[in-house]
Amino acid sequence: MSEIRAISWVSDGLVLIDQTKLPQQEINLNIETVDQLVDAIKKLAVRGAPALGAAGAWGVVIAMRQAVKEKWSNEKRNEEFLRIRNARPTAVNLAWGVDKVLPFVDQGIDEVLAKANQIAAEDEAGNRQMGKFGSSWIESKVKNRPIRALTHCNTGSLATTTWGTALGVIREMNARGILKHVFADETRPLLQGGRLTAWELAHDNIEHFVIADGAATSIIARGEVDVALIGADRVAANGDTANKIGSFAVALACKYAGIPFVVVAPESTVDVATLTGADIEIEYRDENEILSLNGQRISPAKSKGLNPAFDVTPAELISALVTEKGVYEISNGITPGSKLAKA
Question: Is residue 2 in a domain?
Answer without folding.
Answer: no
